[in-house]
Amino acid sequence: MNTYDLIMKKRDGLILDKEEITYMVDGFTKGEIPDYQMAAFLMAVYFRGMNDKETTMLTMAMADSGDRLDLSAINGVKVDKHSTGGVGDKTSLIIGPILASLGVPVAKMSGRGLGHTGGTIDKLEGIPGFQTSISEEAFIRQVNETGLAIVGQTANLAPADKKIYALRDVTATVDNISLIAASIMSKKLAAGADAIVLDVKVGSGAFMKTLEDARSLAKTMVAIGTLAGKHTIAVITDMNEPLGNAVGNILEVEEAAECLKGNGEARLMEVSKTLASHMLLASGKAFSVEQAEEQVEQAITSGSAFAKMKEFVTAQGGDSSYLDEPSKFEKAKYKRVITGKSIFLSREESSEWTEAYLASCNNQEIGMASMVLGGGRRTKDSVIDLTVGIRLFKHLGDIIKDTDIVAELYGNDEQKLDEAEKRFIMAYTLSKENNFKNRIVYDVITSD
Ligand code: URA
After folding, report:
1. Low-confidence winner among 108-117, 153-162, 201-210 (lowest mean pLDDT)
2. Distance in angstroms (rounded) separating the CA atoms of residues 397 and 425
3. Mean pLDDT, residues 97-106
4. Which residue, 11, 17, 39, 448, has fewest beta-carbon neighbours within 10 Å?
5. Which residues line ligand 1 (CB under 6 A)?
6. 187 among known catalytic residues
């Protein structure tokens, strides 16, 4: 077997077998296959696709490329959750404490943001003292004692994915269903949970732009998880605008805390509660969606989920007083206010308008505006500014008047604020009529 022949085989649209796929994954992980050959192979997969069997074999080879975490020392059914990535998606920070407060152990390995999407680990590092890298022993002890720990992915968990993802990111081969499914499911299978709830995002801020593609990705991942013996379901949710009112690391931690205090934005709460309810159901602690929804609601209104969030932050070395008093968080130096008028004036057809509806949003551009401010990474090694970001006061379908504040941008550099402001303003389209139709939860995909 040799790499050249396998690239050619996939380039010509032929089906690869288990040995061939494992040869590519192992060879690349060990450094025996160079980047340029793997890049050519990934591009061949991108254009020719992989069938379900090949995608499953790719996932298994990637999951077996490093350690598999053994969570058997944690009592109870361990349920993991993964989002395919989006803008303003802080649901893990909301759901983890809800489930832990209901007695479901959550042992979560999360990622960092890349490109226009954010990552849970960066957000948590906005809390002074919070340790995202703790030993496996401390991780398991904390889950047994407090019910929740969230740490960064260890170096040897699915190392093939780390190397392949870095290459995909610079060779325009990220948005392929087989490659995304294998990337996500290899990490989830190696992370050792008993059940997996996937949040598949769809829309302008997601990798999947259409509902058809999102369904296909969801079905592929559910099939892989089920085949591996894990109870797996996927919820398809909207990413046509940022989720909630905040984009940016510290701003999102503040917002997550507010959600657990009962002050969450409606769409963000609907996604969080839906995912939490399905996780509760998968854990066996609830027997119907209705019962799970009631328990989730109760965890929030009773304050027990917020108390759990503080307990978890303290256990991981963070100063939880910041969650009680968000004004203590470090703030960016400058604030740029975006009014309805600044949006109307930015294009000729609306320059005379005094009110309009926010009709659509290029959400990837909102993520890019936050990245330009310093809140996201251009490359894996970029250092990010945890204080910057965007606070939104209006959502799609809202009417905006010229005097209304639509958003505030926070930054530490005036030039970056200028660029972010331009990107933010141009990300929206306006309409005189309200023809807004986006739902927030589109579908739930189960193995049957
Ligand atoms: N998230 C991942 O972990 N992998 C992908 O390929 C895309 C999103």
Report:
1. 108-117
2. 16
3. 97
4. 448
5. 84-85, 165, 174, 179-180, 183-184, 207
6. yes
